[in-house]
Design goal:
The protein is α+β, with helices and mostly antiparallel strands. The chain has helices at about 60-70, 80-95, 135-140; strands at about 15, 25-35, 45-55, 60, 100-110, 110-120. The chain starts with 14 loop residues before the first strand and ends with a helix.
Length: about 140
Amino acid sequence: MPVNPPTAPSKELHVFPNPSPKRDYVIQFQIPEFTCHCPLTGQPDFAHFTIDCIADKLCIELKSLKMYMWSYRNEGAFHEKVTNDILDDIVKAIDPRFVRITAKWYVRGGIYTNVVVEHRKKGWKPQPLVTLPAHAAESGLLG
């Protein structure tokens, strides 16, 4: 039985219609194995990306996001630039109401770098935060 070859890395982000465009809801992507390399030394850089997105009319298709993130593997990029480039590409692809990217870069030379970038669609206002009390089981008070 033939095995399908893996899909190649790509900068193309595929999209699909938001199934609930009347509601603000958060789509969170966790990408713990991001890699690129330092443009100065060529050494590998590793990061854990968290992408929090409130879509508008379109959502990002997961496999294309995976191939997109993989496309950086052999590129040299400063942490700040690659994080901002990813934000720009997501905004261009889906024009979300809100997106925040948190990139936690692993230690290099004793220093961790965290880069956080955001986009808010003009005119979009977030709903007020609802804070609910923790259940006793969550706080460890039972038992």
